Every structure is written in C-alpha cells, then in structure tokens.
Q: What sequence folds into this?
C-alpha cells in the first residue's frame, strides 16, 4: 500500500448512503456458451442459476440488475440453502465487480458472503467501464493512482457490505461478511500490514468487513496484533498444516491480548487454499511416474484439507478455548478457497463436495458455484474418512513429496500472483488517467 500516510486521509468521493439496493429487482441471464454461441438469453427467476442441458457446455453466468415493477418471482430454495441449514457450511462467492447489485440473485440463491482479492479487482476494474465515472472524478480531483484505486475498491466493499448486512444482523455477526485485502506489496512487512489493516478497517467502516491478511511468516504476527485491536480478519494464502496452526495460534493470542470483556464481535476465517495444492503436487507425482504416484493425483489437496479440519477441531476445544468462549469468542472458521477445478479431467465439484462440514465456509467462483448449484449433493463429508486422508498424506510423504516445500512454494506463487495483478492494475489505471487528461485538454 505505497504510503499509508498518503492514504490515511482518503475520503471516498462516493457515499454509500446514496446506495439503494431496493431500487433494483434481480434478473439473471446466461449469455455465451463455450463455443461462443448464445445458449440461453431468456429472463429467468433469480434462483434458477443453472442450465437444463449438459453442464459441460455452460456459459458465463451474468447476473444483471433491472428496474422492474412488482416484487419479481418468489425465491426458490437451492442446495446452497441446504448447505447452510443442514450442514452448517456457509457458501460465499469469490468475486466482486460493479454493479454490486449483481449479487442480489446470488444472495437469493443462498450465497452468504463475498471474498475479493487483488486479482479479482484487477479483472473487474480493467475490463469494465463501470468504474470510469468515479475514476475520472478522482483523477480530476488530483488523486494519485494508488489512492484512486483504493477509493474504487472501498466503494465496492462498502456497497457489498450493505447488501450482506441483513445476513450479518440475522446471525449476530456470524456470517454475511465481505473481504478486502491489504496491499500485496506488504506480504513481507509486519508493521506495514498492521497499519494497512487499521486504515482499511477505519475507511470501510462497516461491521461486516473482513480485512484480508496473508499467512506469510512476516504477517502471522500482524494477524495477532490486528485481532487484538478488535478488527475482524480473513487470513488468506494458507497452504500447509504447519502454517495453519500458526494462524490459529495468532488468532487465539490476539483474542487473549485484546483486553476486551466481550469478544463476540471479533471474528475470523482462515482461508485454506485447495485446488492449487493438487496443481503442484500432481506435477511432482507425474515426474515420479510410478503407478502408485500416478494413482494419487487429485487426492493431495482434499486429504490435507481434511487434516486441517481435524486440527481445527483440536485447537478450538479444551481449557484455553473454553476460557475465551466465556468472553463471547467465536471460532475462527475454516474457509475453503481456490475451489475451482484447474484440471478439466476432475469433477467440477471436487473441491466443494468433499469439504462439507459445520462451522466452515466454502467460497466459490462462478464455475464452482454454478456446478454445485446444478448437481451438488449436500452431506457432511469433511470428516467422513479421516483415516483415508491420513493414509494419503503419509503415502505422499513416502513418495518424497515434501509438504513444507509445497506450502512454501505455493505461498510464494500466490503472493507473486497478487503483486503482479496489483501492479498491472495500477499500470492500466495510469494509462487510463493519461488518456483522460489528454481528452480533458
């Protein structure tokens, strides 16, 4: 985040008080198939987010907001409602762009929160004209590029928080969160991350915002500090059991250090990344090349995730945790991230269906969300066969898979990817600002 001092005086041009989601009624359109042909362009009920034909030919789900008279079609239940009500898992949406009213049909379909990251905003802002008007005003007002970027982001986060506020209130702060990440440039800066988190929390100024902090070694102490300040945190980029345990300890340490008599409003999720683990481990297994190694492809990620849930159950029990519960503390829920399938040979719900369990969150991008709504089955699966998960984890170790290396490598790749997205977006905004100035002259 460039210069915190420079950004500390940020005062968003667009006030969320002018945002009125009630002025819109949701309409859903499916626009293009994989072959570029229109497969479905009829107005449909907000709850009907799936195609009737073969899901392999699905197109992009475009959710649009139209001003319609009346209350629209009644909401129909989806498996997302069952996921939460029957198994205690909160389905979130891993995407955010303007207009945020695009989220209304998804909320009606059972989505209970939103996650964002620098890559998501890079795509949203650089490929859409929806940000142009606000950006033009910011440039004309003399804002530097990075300050302008954060104002664009803050507006989206505030508006999304408004949409999810009813869920937050209904669950007494248990759900309905919108996540926004500190600058990826701070992934190795403990103090800078704390200052950025404090600033973001203050400027967004919404009870249901999660400040995302990466689980790098340098930022684990930041997590403790930010939690101790009473700021709710989404810890992101967790790829290993060892780092996950350090994240849990940072949360517990932060709660204990807060000095608050009521801990009920300080919450957290730990974003444990899934599919990317298989992407890396599969390559390592293919290099080994034995039948045993090849048979373990596509199994590493979910096995490690099952063991993470076992660790979660262990850490959030016992005398230490019970002492915090007496002060109103809530468990730091496991959040399954990176749930889209990278290998087309795998089931499109591979990183959703086997990871269902109470007190967890599954954040899904479009592809995974559509697939699960269309043909996902709801049942508790995360701890249905822990012994098998332990066997897979051990078998991979015996083959020479170093879980420590896997976690470190994926963390490096994740941080680097977000930095590149962040830098690319700032570059594109600079180009856009230059063009706006040329036009204005």
A:
């Amino acid at each position: 985040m460039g210069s915190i001092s420079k950004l500390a005086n940020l005062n968003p041009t667009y006030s969320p008080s002018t945002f009125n989601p009630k002025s819109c009624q949701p309409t859903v359109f499916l626009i293009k198939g994989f072959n570029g042909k229109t497969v479905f362009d009829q107005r449909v009920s907000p709850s009907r987010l799936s195609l009737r034909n073969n899901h392999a030919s699905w197109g992009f789900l475009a959710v649009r907001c139209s001003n319609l008279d009346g209350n629209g079609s009644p909401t129909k239940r989806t498996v997302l409602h069952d996921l939460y009500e029957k198994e205690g898992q909160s389905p979130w949406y891993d995407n955010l762009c303007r207009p945020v009213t695009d989220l209304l049909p998804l909320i009606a379909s059972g989505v209970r929160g939103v996650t964002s990251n620098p890559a998501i905003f890079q795509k949203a802002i650089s490929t859409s004209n929806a940000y142009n008007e606000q950006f033009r005003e910011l440039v004309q007002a003399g804002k530097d590029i990075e300050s302008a970027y954060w104002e664009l982001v803050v507006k989206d986060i505030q508006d999304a928080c408004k949409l999810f506020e009813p869920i937050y209130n209904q669950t007494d702060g248990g759900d309905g969160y919108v996540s926004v990440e500190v600058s990826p440039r701070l992934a190795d800066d403990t103090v800078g991350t704390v200052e950025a988190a404090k600033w973001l929390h203050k400027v967004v100024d919404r009870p249901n915002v999660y400040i995302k902090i990466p689980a790098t070694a340098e930022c684990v102490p930041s997590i403790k500090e930010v939690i101790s300040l009473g700021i709710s945190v989404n810890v992101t980029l967790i790829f290993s059991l060892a780092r996950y345990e350090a994240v849990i300890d940072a949360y517990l340490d932060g709660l204990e250090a807060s000095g608050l008599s009521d801990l009920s409003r300080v919450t957290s999720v730990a974003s444990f990344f899934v599919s990317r683990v298989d992407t890396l481990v599969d390559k390592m297994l293919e290099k080994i090349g034995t039948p045993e190694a090849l048979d373990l492809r596509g199994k590493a990620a979910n096995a490690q995730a099952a063991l993470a849930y076992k660790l979660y159950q262990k850490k959030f029990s016992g005398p230490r945790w019970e002492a915090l519960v007496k002060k109103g503390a809530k468990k730091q829920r496991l959040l399954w991230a990176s749930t889209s399938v990278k290998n087309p040979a795998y089931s499109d719900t591979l990183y959703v269906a086997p990871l269902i369990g109470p007190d967890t969150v599954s954040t899904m991008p479009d592809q995974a969300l559509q697939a699960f709504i269309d043909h996902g089955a709801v049942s508790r699966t995360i701890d249905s066969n822990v012994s098998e998960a332990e066997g897979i984890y051990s078998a991979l170790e015996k083959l020479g898979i170093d879980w420590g290396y896997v976690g470190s490598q994926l963390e490096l790749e994740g941080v680097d990817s977000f930095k590149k997205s962040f830098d690319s977006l700032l570059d594109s905004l600079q180009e856009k600002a230059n063009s706006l100035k040329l036009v204005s002259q």
The chain is about 45% helix and 15% strand. Confidence is low (pLDDT under 50) at residues 1-74.
